[in-house]
Amino acid sequence: MRRTRWWILALLALTLLLVACSKTAPQNTMNPHGPTAQTEKNLLVLVLWPAAAVFLVVEGGILLISIRLRHRKDRDRMPPQIHGNTRLEIGWTIAPAIVLAVIMVPTVSTIWQLARQPADAMQITVEGYQWWWGFRYTDPDMAVNYGDHDAIVTADVLVIPTGRTIDLSLTSLGGGAHSTAGVPDHQVIHSFWAPQLFGKQDVIPGETNHIVFSADDPGIYSGQCAEFCGLQHGKMKFRIRALDEADWQRWVANEKSPSVQPNDGLAQQGMDLFLGVNGVGGQCIQCHAVGGTDAAGTAAPNLTHFAAATHECFAGCDFESFLNGNPNAADLKAWLADPNAVKLGAKMPDYGLTEQQIDALVAYLYSLT
Ligand code: CUA
Asked: How many CA within 13 A on the CB side of residue 138?
Protein backbone atom coordinates (compact mmCIF):
# COMPACT_ATOMS: atom_id res chain seq x y z
CA MET A 1 0.00 0.00 0.00
CA ARG A 2 2.85 2.32 0.94
CA ARG A 3 4.57 1.60 -2.36
CA THR A 4 1.43 2.40 -4.35
CA ARG A 5 1.13 5.72 -2.61
CA TRP A 6 4.71 6.59 -3.56
CA TRP A 7 4.03 5.67 -7.17
CA ILE A 8 0.97 7.91 -7.27
CA LEU A 9 2.93 10.79 -5.74
CA ALA A 10 5.79 10.29 -8.19
CA LEU A 11 3.41 10.28 -11.17
CA LEU A 12 1.71 13.45 -9.93
CA ALA A 13 5.08 15.16 -9.49
CA LEU A 14 6.17 14.09 -12.98
CA THR A 15 2.94 15.44 -14.46
CA LEU A 16 3.47 18.80 -12.76
CA LEU A 17 7.10 18.85 -13.95
CA LEU A 18 6.13 18.14 -17.56
CA VAL A 19 3.46 20.82 -17.51
CA ALA A 20 6.15 23.29 -16.46
CA CYS A 21 8.45 22.31 -19.34
CA SER A 22 7.79 25.32 -21.55
CA LYS A 23 7.52 28.87 -20.36
CA THR A 24 7.16 30.70 -23.66
CA ALA A 25 5.24 28.02 -25.66
CA PRO A 26 5.29 29.76 -29.05
CA GLN A 27 3.01 27.08 -30.48
CA ASN A 28 0.21 27.33 -27.95
CA THR A 29 -3.29 26.81 -29.36
CA MET A 30 -4.73 28.44 -26.24
CA ASN A 31 -2.98 31.73 -27.04
CA PRO A 32 -4.57 32.80 -30.36
CA HIS A 33 -3.36 35.86 -32.30
CA GLY A 34 -5.94 35.97 -35.05
CA PRO A 35 -9.66 35.40 -35.68
CA THR A 36 -9.24 31.89 -37.15
CA ALA A 37 -7.27 30.61 -34.17
CA GLN A 38 -9.69 32.44 -31.82
CA THR A 39 -12.73 30.78 -33.44
CA GLU A 40 -11.05 27.38 -33.17
CA LYS A 41 -10.14 27.99 -29.53
CA ASN A 42 -13.72 29.05 -28.72
CA LEU A 43 -15.01 25.77 -30.14
CA LEU A 44 -12.37 23.80 -28.27
CA VAL A 45 -13.28 25.43 -24.95
CA LEU A 46 -17.00 25.01 -25.65
CA VAL A 47 -16.59 21.27 -26.24
CA LEU A 48 -14.15 20.89 -23.37
CA TRP A 49 -16.82 21.43 -20.65
CA PRO A 50 -19.33 18.76 -21.79
CA ALA A 51 -16.33 16.47 -22.42
CA ALA A 52 -15.06 17.08 -18.88
CA ALA A 53 -18.54 16.38 -17.46
CA VAL A 54 -18.77 13.11 -19.42
CA PHE A 55 -15.27 12.17 -18.26
CA LEU A 56 -16.16 12.77 -14.62
CA VAL A 57 -19.43 10.81 -14.81
CA VAL A 58 -17.87 7.82 -16.61
CA GLU A 59 -14.56 7.64 -14.71
CA GLY A 60 -16.29 8.45 -11.41
CA GLY A 61 -18.77 5.63 -12.06
CA ILE A 62 -15.96 3.18 -12.80
CA LEU A 63 -14.11 4.18 -9.62
CA LEU A 64 -17.26 3.97 -7.51
CA ILE A 65 -18.22 0.52 -8.82
CA SER A 66 -14.65 -0.79 -8.48
CA ILE A 67 -14.45 0.29 -4.87
CA ARG A 68 -17.98 -0.58 -3.68
CA LEU A 69 -18.23 -3.93 -5.42
CA ARG A 70 -14.61 -5.05 -4.99
CA HIS A 71 -13.79 -8.56 -3.86
CA ARG A 72 -13.88 -9.03 -0.10
CA LYS A 73 -12.10 -11.70 1.86
CA ASP A 74 -15.18 -13.00 3.64
CA ARG A 75 -17.28 -13.22 0.47
CA ASP A 76 -17.81 -16.91 -0.29
CA ARG A 77 -20.26 -16.80 -3.22
CA MET A 78 -20.54 -15.06 -6.57
CA PRO A 79 -22.83 -11.98 -6.63
CA PRO A 80 -26.00 -12.36 -8.78
CA GLN A 81 -25.08 -12.39 -12.49
CA ILE A 82 -27.29 -9.98 -14.48
CA HIS A 83 -27.72 -9.80 -18.23
CA GLY A 84 -29.47 -6.93 -19.99
CA ASN A 85 -31.34 -3.90 -18.68
CA THR A 86 -33.52 -2.32 -21.34
CA ARG A 87 -34.11 0.98 -19.55
CA LEU A 88 -30.43 1.47 -18.77
CA GLU A 89 -29.37 0.58 -22.31
CA ILE A 90 -31.85 2.98 -23.90
CA GLY A 91 -30.62 5.63 -21.49
CA TRP A 92 -26.94 5.27 -22.32
CA THR A 93 -27.70 5.23 -26.02
CA ILE A 94 -29.88 8.34 -26.01
CA ALA A 95 -27.77 10.44 -23.61
CA PRO A 96 -24.55 10.38 -25.72
CA ALA A 97 -26.63 10.94 -28.88
CA ILE A 98 -28.08 14.11 -27.36
CA VAL A 99 -24.62 15.31 -26.20
CA LEU A 100 -23.17 14.70 -29.70
CA ALA A 101 -26.11 16.42 -31.39
CA VAL A 102 -25.65 19.49 -29.18
CA ILE A 103 -21.89 19.61 -29.84
CA MET A 104 -22.50 19.14 -33.58
CA VAL A 105 -24.29 22.49 -33.94
CA PRO A 106 -21.34 24.78 -33.07
CA THR A 107 -18.86 22.38 -34.68
CA VAL A 108 -20.52 22.33 -38.08
CA SER A 109 -21.20 26.05 -38.05
CA THR A 110 -17.50 26.68 -37.21
CA ILE A 111 -16.42 24.43 -40.09
CA TRP A 112 -18.62 26.41 -42.48
CA GLN A 113 -17.47 29.71 -41.07
CA LEU A 114 -13.77 28.83 -41.47
CA ALA A 115 -14.27 27.44 -44.98
CA ARG A 116 -15.47 30.80 -46.30
CA GLN A 117 -13.05 32.30 -48.82
CA PRO A 118 -13.57 36.07 -49.11
CA ALA A 119 -13.03 37.34 -52.64
CA ASP A 120 -10.74 40.17 -51.49
CA ALA A 121 -8.37 37.89 -49.55
CA MET A 122 -4.68 37.94 -50.43
CA GLN A 123 -3.81 34.77 -52.34
CA ILE A 124 -0.66 32.88 -51.36
CA THR A 125 0.24 29.37 -52.45
CA VAL A 126 1.99 27.23 -49.83
CA GLU A 127 4.22 24.55 -51.34
CA GLY A 128 5.28 21.59 -49.18
CA TYR A 129 8.60 19.99 -50.08
CA GLN A 130 10.82 17.50 -48.27
CA TRP A 131 11.53 19.21 -45.84
CA TRP A 132 10.85 22.88 -46.14
CA TRP A 133 8.03 25.21 -47.12
CA GLY A 134 7.86 27.54 -50.13
CA PHE A 135 5.51 30.52 -50.49
CA ARG A 136 4.26 31.99 -53.77
CA TYR A 137 2.43 35.34 -53.77
CA THR A 138 0.08 34.91 -56.70
CA ASP A 139 -1.91 38.17 -56.63
CA PRO A 140 -1.28 40.28 -59.77
CA ASP A 141 0.01 43.21 -57.71
CA MET A 142 2.61 40.93 -56.11
CA ALA A 143 4.48 40.20 -59.35
CA VAL A 144 8.19 40.99 -59.38
CA ASN A 145 9.38 43.93 -61.46
CA TYR A 146 12.02 42.08 -63.49
CA GLY A 147 12.28 39.19 -65.98
CA ASP A 148 8.99 37.49 -66.73
CA HIS A 149 7.21 39.31 -63.90
CA ASP A 150 6.62 36.08 -62.04
CA ALA A 151 5.21 35.98 -58.51
CA ILE A 152 7.26 36.84 -55.42
CA VAL A 153 8.56 33.52 -54.08
CA THR A 154 10.09 32.94 -50.65
CA ALA A 155 10.94 29.98 -48.43
CA ASP A 156 10.90 29.20 -44.70
CA VAL A 157 9.29 32.47 -43.56
CA LEU A 158 5.80 33.46 -44.70
CA VAL A 159 5.62 37.25 -44.52
CA ILE A 160 2.13 38.77 -44.33
CA PRO A 161 0.59 42.16 -43.57
CA THR A 162 -1.18 42.45 -40.22
CA GLY A 163 -4.98 42.56 -40.31
CA ARG A 164 -5.32 41.43 -43.94
CA THR A 165 -7.27 38.25 -44.68
CA ILE A 166 -4.97 35.68 -46.27
CA ASP A 167 -6.23 32.75 -48.36
CA LEU A 168 -3.58 30.02 -48.45
CA SER A 169 -3.74 27.41 -51.21
CA LEU A 170 -1.87 24.35 -49.93
CA THR A 171 -0.05 22.10 -52.39
CA SER A 172 2.50 19.35 -52.03
CA LEU A 173 5.30 19.49 -54.57
CA GLY A 174 8.19 17.12 -55.11
CA GLY A 175 10.97 17.82 -57.51
CA GLY A 176 13.88 17.36 -55.15
CA ALA A 177 17.44 17.25 -56.44
CA HIS A 178 16.94 13.70 -57.65
CA SER A 179 13.96 14.39 -59.88
CA THR A 180 14.36 13.30 -63.47
CA ALA A 181 12.99 14.82 -66.67
CA GLY A 182 10.67 17.17 -64.85
CA VAL A 183 8.87 14.37 -63.06
CA PRO A 184 8.21 15.55 -59.53
CA ASP A 185 9.18 13.01 -56.92
CA HIS A 186 9.14 13.10 -53.14
CA GLN A 187 5.49 14.16 -53.24
CA VAL A 188 4.12 13.22 -49.86
CA ILE A 189 1.37 14.40 -47.51
CA HIS A 190 2.31 17.24 -45.14
CA SER A 191 0.22 19.33 -42.78
CA PHE A 192 0.51 23.10 -42.36
CA TRP A 193 0.10 24.33 -38.80
CA ALA A 194 0.79 27.59 -36.98
CA PRO A 195 -1.14 27.09 -33.72
CA GLN A 196 -1.38 30.77 -32.76
CA LEU A 197 -2.91 31.67 -36.13
CA PHE A 198 -4.74 28.59 -37.45
CA GLY A 199 -5.24 24.86 -36.88
CA LYS A 200 -3.80 22.02 -38.95
CA GLN A 201 -4.70 21.51 -42.59
CA ASP A 202 -3.42 18.61 -44.68
CA VAL A 203 -1.21 19.33 -47.69
CA ILE A 204 -1.95 16.58 -50.20
CA PRO A 205 -0.32 15.90 -53.60
CA GLY A 206 -2.78 16.63 -56.40
CA GLU A 207 -5.23 18.41 -54.09
CA THR A 208 -5.57 22.05 -53.08
CA ASN A 209 -6.68 22.67 -49.52
CA HIS A 210 -7.25 26.13 -48.06
CA ILE A 211 -6.57 28.00 -44.86
CA VAL A 212 -8.14 31.45 -44.49
CA PHE A 213 -6.68 33.50 -41.65
CA SER A 214 -5.27 36.80 -40.55
CA ALA A 215 -2.88 37.98 -37.84
CA ASP A 216 -4.05 40.64 -35.37
CA ASP A 217 -0.64 41.88 -34.28
CA PRO A 218 2.79 42.27 -35.84
CA GLY A 219 5.11 39.52 -34.68
CA ILE A 220 6.64 36.16 -35.39
CA TYR A 221 4.49 33.05 -35.17
CA SER A 222 6.16 29.68 -35.37
CA GLY A 223 4.70 26.66 -37.09
CA GLN A 224 5.63 23.24 -38.32
CA CYS A 225 4.60 20.30 -40.43
CA ALA A 226 2.08 18.20 -38.49
CA GLU A 227 1.91 15.08 -40.67
CA PHE A 228 4.71 12.51 -40.76
CA CYS A 229 6.38 13.05 -44.15
CA GLY A 230 9.73 11.28 -43.94
CA LEU A 231 13.03 11.41 -42.10
CA GLN A 232 13.09 15.12 -41.32
CA HIS A 233 9.39 15.65 -40.66
CA GLY A 234 10.27 16.95 -37.20
CA LYS A 235 12.51 19.61 -38.74
CA MET A 236 10.05 20.87 -41.35
CA LYS A 237 9.42 24.13 -39.58
CA PHE A 238 8.42 27.61 -40.70
CA ARG A 239 7.65 31.01 -39.30
CA ILE A 240 4.96 33.51 -40.13
CA ARG A 241 6.04 37.10 -39.78
CA ALA A 242 3.22 39.64 -39.64
CA LEU A 243 4.32 43.18 -40.50
CA ASP A 244 2.53 46.49 -40.00
CA GLU A 245 1.59 48.40 -43.15
CA ALA A 246 4.80 50.47 -43.48
CA ASP A 247 7.12 47.46 -42.95
CA TRP A 248 4.97 45.38 -45.28
CA GLN A 249 5.27 47.94 -48.10
CA ARG A 250 9.05 48.02 -47.62
CA TRP A 251 9.20 44.23 -47.69
CA VAL A 252 7.11 44.01 -50.87
CA ALA A 253 9.24 46.65 -52.63
CA ASN A 254 12.43 44.76 -51.74
CA GLU A 255 11.03 41.36 -52.77
CA LYS A 256 9.86 42.77 -56.11
CA SER A 257 13.39 43.86 -56.91
CA PRO A 258 15.95 41.52 -58.45
CA SER A 259 18.85 40.26 -56.35
CA VAL A 260 21.63 42.67 -55.46
CA GLN A 261 24.79 42.29 -57.52
CA PRO A 262 27.67 41.77 -55.10
CA ASN A 263 30.55 44.24 -55.31
CA ASP A 264 32.79 42.37 -52.89
CA GLY A 265 35.46 40.12 -54.42
CA LEU A 266 34.68 36.99 -52.42
CA ALA A 267 30.93 37.35 -52.94
CA GLN A 268 31.52 37.80 -56.67
CA GLN A 269 33.53 34.57 -56.72
CA GLY A 270 30.64 32.92 -54.93
CA MET A 271 28.19 34.21 -57.51
CA ASP A 272 30.35 32.88 -60.35
CA LEU A 273 30.50 29.50 -58.63
CA PHE A 274 26.75 29.57 -57.98
CA LEU A 275 25.93 30.35 -61.61
CA GLY A 276 28.70 28.23 -63.08
CA VAL A 277 30.40 30.96 -65.11
CA ASN A 278 34.05 30.19 -66.00
CA GLY A 279 33.07 26.54 -66.28
CA VAL A 280 33.33 25.87 -62.53
CA GLY A 281 30.36 25.07 -60.28
CA GLY A 282 26.84 25.73 -61.55
CA GLN A 283 25.21 22.91 -59.62
CA CYS A 284 23.26 25.34 -57.40
CA ILE A 285 21.12 26.66 -60.24
CA GLN A 286 19.80 23.22 -61.11
CA CYS A 287 17.50 23.59 -58.12
CA HIS A 288 17.73 27.15 -56.78
CA ALA A 289 16.54 30.43 -58.25
CA VAL A 290 18.05 33.88 -57.71
CA GLY A 291 15.95 36.61 -59.28
CA GLY A 292 17.76 38.73 -61.84
CA THR A 293 20.31 36.00 -62.67
CA ASP A 294 20.23 32.86 -64.83
CA ALA A 295 19.41 30.79 -61.75
CA ALA A 296 15.79 29.69 -62.16
CA GLY A 297 15.51 26.28 -60.51
CA THR A 298 12.26 25.55 -58.69
CA ALA A 299 13.06 22.35 -56.77
CA ALA A 300 14.75 24.11 -53.86
CA PRO A 301 14.27 27.37 -51.93
CA ASN A 302 14.30 30.61 -53.92
CA LEU A 303 17.36 32.51 -52.68
CA THR A 304 16.76 35.94 -54.28
CA HIS A 305 16.63 37.67 -50.90
CA PHE A 306 18.28 35.00 -48.78
CA ALA A 307 19.86 37.57 -46.45
CA ALA A 308 16.84 39.87 -46.07
CA ALA A 309 16.25 40.59 -42.39
CA THR A 310 12.84 38.90 -42.57
CA HIS A 311 14.34 35.65 -43.89
CA GLU A 312 15.46 34.76 -40.43
CA CYS A 313 15.90 31.02 -40.82
CA PHE A 314 16.90 28.59 -43.56
CA ALA A 315 16.81 24.89 -44.50
CA GLY A 316 13.31 24.37 -43.12
CA CYS A 317 14.02 26.82 -40.28
CA ASP A 318 16.57 24.37 -38.97
CA PHE A 319 19.10 27.18 -38.67
CA GLU A 320 18.93 30.84 -37.74
CA SER A 321 20.09 33.10 -40.58
CA PHE A 322 21.42 35.64 -38.10
CA LEU A 323 22.86 35.45 -34.61
CA ASN A 324 22.74 38.72 -32.69
CA GLY A 325 22.24 40.52 -35.98
CA ASN A 326 25.31 38.96 -37.61
CA PRO A 327 25.29 36.40 -40.45
CA ASN A 328 25.26 32.86 -39.07
CA ALA A 329 28.12 31.82 -41.35
CA ALA A 330 29.11 28.83 -39.23
CA ASP A 331 25.82 26.94 -39.69
CA LEU A 332 25.56 27.87 -43.37
CA LYS A 333 29.09 26.57 -43.94
CA ALA A 334 28.32 23.30 -42.18
CA TRP A 335 25.14 22.98 -44.26
CA LEU A 336 26.98 23.59 -47.56
CA ALA A 337 29.84 21.27 -46.59
CA ASP A 338 27.62 18.26 -45.93
CA PRO A 339 23.85 18.82 -45.85
CA ASN A 340 23.15 15.22 -44.86
CA ALA A 341 25.42 15.45 -41.84
CA VAL A 342 23.25 18.20 -40.35
CA LYS A 343 19.88 17.13 -41.77
CA LEU A 344 19.89 13.44 -42.63
CA GLY A 345 18.06 12.69 -45.87
CA ALA A 346 18.10 16.30 -47.08
CA LYS A 347 17.65 16.54 -50.86
CA MET A 348 20.47 19.09 -51.04
CA PRO A 349 23.48 17.11 -52.29
CA ASP A 350 27.05 17.27 -51.02
CA TYR A 351 29.09 18.63 -53.92
CA GLY A 352 32.42 18.17 -52.20
CA LEU A 353 33.02 21.92 -52.11
CA THR A 354 36.38 23.18 -50.94
CA GLU A 355 36.59 25.43 -47.92
CA GLN A 356 37.46 28.38 -50.16
CA GLN A 357 34.41 27.66 -52.37
CA ILE A 358 32.17 27.44 -49.32
CA ASP A 359 33.49 30.78 -48.02
CA ALA A 360 32.75 32.37 -51.40
CA LEU A 361 29.22 30.91 -51.53
CA VAL A 362 28.48 32.07 -47.98
CA ALA A 363 29.69 35.57 -48.87
CA TYR A 364 27.46 35.55 -51.96
CA LEU A 365 24.37 34.28 -50.12
CA TYR A 366 24.76 36.86 -47.36
CA SER A 367 25.06 39.60 -50.00
CA LEU A 368 21.52 38.78 -51.18
CA THR A 369 19.59 41.19 -48.97
CU1 CUA B 1 6.16 17.63 -43.91
CU2 CUA B 1 5.90 16.34 -41.92
From this structure: 14
